[in-house]
Amino acid sequence: MIELTDITKRYGETEILSGISLTAKAGEMTALVGPSGSGKSTLLQVIGLLQRQTSGSFRIDGRDTGDLSEEERRKLRLASIGFIFQEAHLVPFLTAKEQLMLVEREHGVRESRAERLLEQFGLAGRADHLPATLSGGQRQRVAIARALVNEPRLILADEPTASLDYANGRSVMEMLRSEADTGKNVLLITHDERMLDLCDSVFRLEDGRLRK
Amino acid sequence: MRLGWLELRRSKKRFMMIGGVTTLILLLVWMISGLADGLAYDNGSVYRLMPDARFTLEADAKGDVTRSFLTDDAPAGTEKLGAQMVTLETRDGTKTDAAVFALAGGSRYAPKEAARLRKGEVLVDTSLLAEGGAKVGDAVTDFRTKQEFRITGTTPGRYSHAPVLWMTWETWQDWQETIGVSYASAFIGESGKYSLRDVIESVPGYSAEQSSFQMMRLFLVLIGALLLSAFFYLTTMEKLPQLGILKAIGLQNRRMGEALLLQVVFVAAAAAVCSFALALVLKNILPADIPFRLEAGGFLYAGILLASALIGALFPLRLLGRVEPADVIGGVRG
Hints:
Chain A is of the alpha/beta class. Helices cover 32% and strands 27% of the residues of chain A. Chain B has 2 domains: 2-42 and 207-328, no CATH class; 54-189, no CATH class. In chain B, 51% of the residues lie in helices and 16% in strands. Chain B has helices at 2-10, 12-48, 126-132, 169-177, 196-201, 206-249, 253-285, 296-314, 317-320, 325-328; strands spanning 54-56, 78-89, 95-103, 121-124, 139-142, 148-154, 158-159, 162-168, 186-189, 194-195. A 6-stranded mixed beta barrel of chain B has the order 2-3-8-4-6-5. The interface between A and B is medium-sized, with 39 and 24 residues.
């Protein structure tokens, strides 16, 4: 479970997030929607421990993240958070399987589940392909598999379907839905309202303020 | 480390291009150094082939033995050295400049082969045979005095870019008597005002020639170092977004730094080996009349360039700690 209480984020004089309070439970898929510049990505990055809030409290499974050092935040990211970006952002010189194994190795995993996961995502025949030889949809599926390979409790997705057509986008969203159904906490940003039916709750951000 | 190797293996073209540029800049350094060292050697190899010695010269000779005229007896512990530039004429009438050097038979400062020389016999540098069209057994004539010398063998040695002709002190005296003089150019031994280095640097044209090359080499190393460090800096900067993503996923900075270090060291080492191999090939295919030597100094300059490449590549790594994954992920701060 993630709990945000009165989170504020400022860049100099500009307030990007103002008094955000939000709770998302395990097994839920939560969507953040709102116009560009409303602070969605910043909020996602605060939740993903990529940025620190200026004020307010943020807890993951009851653990306050405010006092964590950079190294502790990195370890927590590696162990508990799976990121899916707008672009796949795969490492260009690693095969699909190696993308997953890179994260596993960093985590000290002995028995790789990379192949199994790729198979689950319909990429069994693409395990040894480099990103350049994969389609956009396949790349994004590899990115999702990479985000899930360490079995994180929290999955954060920043417009995961933005670079995909509707069919591929829907397929990605369904994959995320099924991850939520296994007990994971999925938080995503989307501009595509056709996908919102798969979400348990939708929050709207406007000028850094949250409206449900 | 494994990450670094994988990228090296899978992005061959990219690394070959980086390595190729580095190799060419290093090769340029080897070339200039090789030519400078080659000319430096060629200008005074007669001295460089001698055992360590000190020289006494006439006060106003400024270190140049061919400008020195000493008529005193050699002080104890030294011996007389004769040295003079001459124009020689070979049997077919070809004229060529040469430097005559003379020492007593069996002198430890003369080439070993000179111990067998008899009166009127000389040893010459092979370049005299090539340039003058003479061969061992032929006679060469001093154009000015018409004194003849018989070539009985060869021994390496050049002075002021001219081949050296070694003779015994007896032959030298005979030759000088034909023009009514008797002198030594220097006293050579364990004592004396000038060192071997001093007399080498006083060879006519040596300092001017080496100063020019030194300037060329200095600017080349400076420009090359800046170029390579900027080049490697940019290649690292280009990767920062990718490193930002890996950092967001949770990879340690150290792991990314190690991968980058491995790649830079590998490319730099490969470029060093390739450029040196190319320089060796060039050395072998260059015409014999272009002096070219690969000496230790070249390694120093190549080392400076490689160190600057390393610094250039690793300098941005300190930025890695400050890379904000947020800055490289699409749609940030939106």
